Amino acid sequence: MNGNAVFQTQLAGLTLRSRGKVRDIYDLGDSLLIVATDRISAFDVVMPTPIPDKGKILTQVSAFWFDFFKEMVPSHLLATDADRFPEVCRPYREELSGRTMWVRKAHPLPVECIVRGYLVGSGWKDYQKTGAVCGIGLPQGLQLAQQLPEPIFTPSTKAEKGAHDENISFDEMVRLVGKDLAEQVRDLSLSIYQKGAAHARERGIILADTKLEFGLLDGKLILIDEVLTPDSSRFWPADRYQVGSNPESFDKQYLRDYLVASGWKDGQPAPELPQEVVENTRSRYLEALERLTGKGLEG
Question: Which PROSITE patterns match (predicted)?
Fold first, then answer.
């Protein structure tokens, strides 16, 4: 493993609540530590090779967006500065620095909120088969990577570990969380996407789609998890975008494409990644950070 990468944390004395595909979450009682490691996943499989600084990039991008959207919706974020973390975290300051969010505990909604502004990925496959995306009818004759007439909201379930998320209808979301909350989340998701996409476009990036998560804190809706990162979104360079072809990306689509071209199949053990793929993936994440936030990597 690269000496500059953190693949997995071991923080003795802190309660590990869960270890996801990318993040290690520690329970501090009424708050959580979300540590973004340098693990990377593709097709819901964690690669054995880390991407150095990836966790720091994700944390910095999310922190930027939480602040950017704070007038629209509050978030769970308390701090990203390790010096402000609770005293129990101090022995691990160096390991946590730059890659960790200290957040309020919330009750996560049991849905992932996906907004699609362009026809690509699973949406494109769905459209080719049905003329719709997740049951939402679209005009005939749209091409790969074409911008949709307007962004669409396509929620999904949160899958158990090792399983795939499943798209659900808005009516099913209403049954899960109630009509008022479902409508509030849908409208807020679309607004976040549109405002984020406008900001990204000013910086030469197309935000093709994104996944958002929300929770309830004291009965109020807040934004949680990560926001408009290269892990949760598709980012394309606007100057190289062409309708009808899969655009280059600043996200992990590059890794997905590499895996497909290598002949790797879903269900097989995840392969070690060549150094070139590691470096190219890191550079894409880093460029997304620099363009979106106007800042380089910190910490």
Answer: SAICAR_SYNTHETASE_2
The answer to whether residue 113 scores a pLDDT higher than 60 is yes
Rounded average pLDDT over 275-294? 96
Q: Is 106 helix (H, G, I), strand (E, B) or coil?
A: coil
**What CATH fold (topology level) applies to the domain 15-105?**
Phosphorylase Kinase; domain 1 (3.30.200)
- Stretch(es) of the chain classified as CATH 3.30.200.20: 15-105
Q: Is 34 exposed, middle or buried (0-12, 13-18, 19+ CB in 10 A)?
A: buried
CB 2 within 8 A of CB 52: yes
Domain 108-251 matching CATH 3.30.470.20: the answer reads: yes
pLDDT of residue 2: 43
The pLDDT of residue 265 is: 93
**Single-letter code of the amino acid located at 96:** L
Dist CA 110 CA 157 (whole Å) = 7
